[in-house]
Design a protein that fits this description.
The chain is of the alpha/beta class and 414 residues long. The protein has 13 helices and 13 strands. Helices cover 43% and strands 21% of the residues. α1 crosses α4 and α5 runs antiparallel to α6. The radius of gyration is 26 Å and the shape is elongated. Keywords: Coiled coil, Cytoplasm, GTP-binding, Magnesium, Metal-binding, Nucleotide-binding.
Length: 414
């Protein structure tokens, strides 16, 4: 059984933050702490006009925190905002316990959760880039670290060695990530050449994306009621009720104030979203802040230039709703991922969404051309298929993506 650390959470409430948003960021920080196996013993809030440049909060507040740490045996203090290297140094001197900020906490969870080689590399890169400016205190003169003769040897301090070691490791990881990214691009290019239709599941962390992914694909990806349960994008083939086949990708959960180092590090993972033809946005309908969560995801999609893609909003966790629920975004479907009837409704709604983007077609296919019939059943949504005996032809009617090569093939037949 893993030992749980006793944690104190410290936060500044600035005039620019509205009360609701501030409270939800604290709740989120508490959930993140629990996910990282910590127990929040106390939350200390200070209302301030602006953050104290040297020690984040006022001196009186820091003294109060110090007294509480000594009295309760607190092992770790987590600050709700990203601290500067100077603040971190000064606070460590004042409080004499381990100190981390929101970004480090998220990085720590990501490090626990990454499964694939790429995921692990990306987390390590983000951690090292975060650590680099924080490895030494202020005032350490590193100007003589120019490289070359005279910089090596006994005159070098351990911190400078660490710094060089970290920089080397960063360069090494970037190279490895580039290789993985190139492989991924080739894989995506193959999928595009095969004209596979791609659906990406996105959503706020813990909205139930992986559960839904598993229900749809009958696959057991990591599914747990925890923040950031999925870090590595999984792609599986799914078949819709009409027989149409698509590729479905599960992606990393978004979060408000996601550290920029992480967005940068997970760029290639998130590219699954930008490559998609259609987006399924999963929202935890039972969460009090679900509207805020929706907005955060929309904002991230905009940053990824994926906000123009057709989308179906899936309001999940219907079983936890006490009152009647009104969707904020349309088209939408309200479901419980555990209800097979709801999954069927989701499929129907998904097909409806595709039809809006697609064009109708009708064609005659010779009974001997089994290959074309098969391809139409997999790459189009077929609504009618009748055999005309005297002509030995199939009459096929349905909808197809206007860019699919099959569409042009059908057009030529007329």
């Amino acid at each position: 059984m893993e030992q749980h650390e006793r944690v104190l959470v410290a936060a500044c409430h600035l005039p620019s933050q509205d009360e609701e948003r501030f409270q939800s960021s604290l709740e989120e920080l508490t959930s993140l702490t629990e996910t990282a196996h910590g127990v929040v013993d106390k939350i200390v809030i200070q209302k301030r006009q602006k953050i104290h440049q040297a020690i984040y909060m006022g001196e009186g507040k820091i003294e109060e925190i110090k007294a509480y740490i000594d009295e309760r045996g607190i092992e770790l203090v987590i600050f709700n905002d990203e601290l500067t290297p100077g603040q971190m140094n000064n606070l460590a001197d004042h409080l004499e316990v381990r100190i981390i900020d929101r970004t480090q906490l998220i990085l720590d969870i990501f490090a626990q959760r990454a499964n694939t080689k790429e995921g692990k590399l990306q987390v390590e890169l983000a951690q090292l880039q975060y650590m680099l400016p924080r490895i030494y205190g202020q005032g350490k003169n590193l100007s003589r670290l120019g490289g070359g003769i005279g910089t090596r040897g006994p005159g070098e301090t351990k911190l400078e060695t660490d710094r060089r070691h970290i920089q080397r490791r960063i360069d090494d990881i970037k190279r490895q990530i580039q290789q993985v990214a190139t492989q991924r691009q080739q894989y995506r290019k193959r999928r595009k050449e095969n004209k596979a239709y791609q659906i990406a599941i996105v959503g706020y962390t813990n909205a139930g994306k992986s559960t839904l992914f598993n229900r749809i694909t009958n696959n057991q990806s990591f599914e747990e009621n925890q923040l950031f349960a999925t870090l590595d994008p999984l792609t599986r083939q799914v078949q819709l009720p009409s027989g149409f086949q698509a590729l479905l990708s599960d992606t990393v959960g978004f979060i408000q104030d996601l550290p920029t180092t992480l967005i940068a590090a997970f760029r290639s993972t998130l590219e699954e979203v930008t490559e998609a033809d259609f987006i399924v946005h999963v929202v935890d309908a039972s969460h009090p802040d679900h509207i805020q969560h929706e907005e955060t995801v929309q904002k991230h999609l905009k940053e990824l230039n994926a906000d123009h893609l057709p989308m179906l909003t899936v309001y999940n966790k219907k079983d936890l709703l006490r009152d009647s629920f009104i969707p904020v975004t349309l088209p939408a479907v309200t479901i419980s991922a555990y209800d097979p009837i709801d999954i069927k409704r989701l499929f129907d709604k998904l097909e409806e969404g595709l039809l809006k983007e697609w064009v109708p077609f009708q064609t005659y296919v010779p009974a001997t051309d089994g290959k074309l019939l098969y391809r139409l059943s997999k790459h189009a949504i077929v609504r009618e298929r009748d055999f005309i005996e005297e002509d030995e032809l199939y009459f096929v009617k349905g909808f197809i993506h206007p860019d699919h090569p099959l569409y042009h093939q059908i057009q030529k037949r007329h």
